[in-house]
## 1
Amino acid sequence: MTDYLHKFAVAPMIDWTDRHCRYFHRGLTRRALLYTEMLTADALIHGDRDRLLGFDAEEHPVALQLGGSDAAKLAEAARIGTDFGYDEINLNVGCPSDRVQSGTFGACLMREPEVVGRGVAAMKAAVDLPVTVKCRLGVDDQDIETALDALADQAFAAGADVLWVHARKAWLQGLSPKENRDVPPLDYDRVYRLKMRWPDRFIGINGGITDLAAAKAHLEKVDGVMLGRAAYQDPGLLAGVDREIYGVDASAPDLIAAARRMCAYAEAHCAAGGRMAAVTKPMIGLFHGRPGARIWRRILTVEGVKAGAGPEVIENALAGLAEAGGLESLAA
């Protein structure tokens, strides 16, 4: 078994897991592995690397997810990511969007496992970091038994340290990326069978996991769990990860403290010309299901987009939460 330690991760999600989201999540869990949004190899080679790759040291451990299919470009992008201080390089073999398909990467690579293998091998040769793959069960009319086995065989033969599997097919024609997160049925048992086939390799599961109880149940069958939409719909649940998943003997982080931690971060971000809304976006669901959650969301959403908005938006939202009795529910 690999010595890979990250049995809980927040999934890479386009338009969500940017540096602001990751910094916020790190205030809720010290142990979970965090991911960038998918970044294409071409963008890193030719684009503004500081803008695309810059992150705060407090975000560690943090993984860089790459999109691409050209082995040489993936190797170069992996080296760039290593130079920026990332802890892991991950190859996206799961994104079903039309734009990604037109670039011949993402989920369409499920049809080309040899290409995935070449990419993994090139990145392993280029960097001294874990190189991992995130994939689907298959695409379109592929048989999920043969498709997933073929992908895993090539990835592991090339040296992949970890395979994270989104336990659904991707439909490349007829479904939007959003629909591809819901419409294709989940098949967790297929991922469990893959783990039985590769007992000495790290296999992680993703898809439809909404709470830590479900995560712990999956960890009876596989090595890791990756949480997606629940991490932004109800980020407060991340406060239980270190204790419930990693067995850390410590109290869960205080949600109020996690919110206030973002004030100094927001002040620095806004002083550098950034928008407050970028900071508040991942915080909107923090008090999901608690008294005052609607007021919290409304203040962050409405005030966060105003010109000149700053960290006072967070304090105003906390005050609204308190007036609605939300603080009492946290102390209960």
## 2
Amino acid sequence: MPLTAPIPVVNPNPDPVRYTGQAKTTPRQRWSALAVLMLPVLLVSIDNTVLSFAIPKIAQALEPTGLQQLWIIDAYSLVLAGLLVPMGSIGDRIGRKKLLIIGSTGFAAVSALAAFAPSAEWLIVARAGLGFFGAMLMPSTLSLIRNIFLNPNERRTALAIWAAGFGSGAALGPVVGGFILEHFSWGAVFMMAVPVLIPFLLLAPFLIPESKDPSPGPVDPVSIGLVMVAMTSLTFAIKHVAKEGLDVAFFISALLGLVLGYFFVRRQLGRETPMLDVRLFTNKVFTGAISANLLAMMSMVGFIYFVSQHLQLVSGMSAMEAGLFLVPGTLVTMVAGLLVVRLVPKIHPAYLVAGGMLLNALAYGLVVVLGGESNAVLMVAFLILGLGVGMSETLSNDLMLSSVKPEKAGAASAISETSYETGAVMGTAVLGGILTAAYSASIALPTGLSEAQAYSASETLGGATRVAEEVGGSLGASLLDAAAHAFDSGVVITAAISAVLMLATAGMAFLMLRGADPHAEPAEH
């Protein structure tokens, strides 16, 4: 039965010509198009996972400060957050396939530049460039799926495969990336984009049908500017407060984002053809699905952020070994996303999404109770987390996409991707920031270090590892022990906060999504 919310959705068998201007497609054409669309999906998921495992080598090669290290990770998401909604709207106008091809070409080119970054500043700029072109990729893939698969049952399966693509990419990323990091420099992880995107650029013009909004209305540069600055400012505020606390920069950026966001909403409500239909947010099911999507991604990215460092810098694993360690959990995420769709006719989606969040809370609670020192505990916790995230991500994406007309799929997909990427930002910025602060506050440095060495060792675990290698001997060993203890203590504190947050999210998801009617047939609007 269709998984739909009690908000207007498309007719289950509409005429594709009416919505997209395209001839009806055969099943073979639709599934071939999906196969090609999965290439950029795999690329983005691999890219995000690989970076977490490459950070230790990047830290040793470029010697970034603690703040620069977070910027290397978050510059991509910061730029992406500001551009997802505008790019989704642009794709609705110029064509989603066209925008996807432009974004793929740019992403491959900038990836090559990032691979040869000579400094942390260079790499941060390159990551921002990847965010610019990355904003063209994911909303385009989702909106094309929305328009290619007009039948809700086919669409739900396609979305499950799309979500599984993220899971398989996350599973392949650590292994492939670990192998690359074992044999090449850290820059090689960025070059992976080239062999992935070349086949896409060769096949996409022939296998993917173009789609666009036939009556998009005029381009609204004021709305584009408002949402860009608002989202970038809010994302920066989240990232900044995690590291620096409540200071002037946080309040200025947060206030700017909120004020411009308010004017953006007011402008959309007053326009006959808004860039983004903000009235969707008045529906509890739609908003609940977005919130669940965001917080599930936050829990996954935050967990990978600290586990990848623990495995390599505390347990002494190679990047390849650390990647293989997390493969079972990422495979569980992929399988859970594919199988949960079959439970919808029997179990209300509110229970499934809330249940996924409870599993996320259980995973973090396991780390709190048993400690973060044991690799076995981390393995089991990640398996449970993968199951929970796989359940909640797949269903929340379907609830969001099934709520809009096909011609508005670009903007709706942009909302979905904004929640996804904001969750990724919060995973590294908020949870990563809490971990970094807890580490810095609890590390007991041994005597004998210079002022510069003490500062570097107290900033990050990677910094402590570099200093320990530099000083060597018993002093280096003592520093490594102190850093490992402080890091594991920080992991427990971060896990405790995350467990409470996931419990609250489970309650929120159940209350907001229980209005979804999984048995209602979609109705045309």
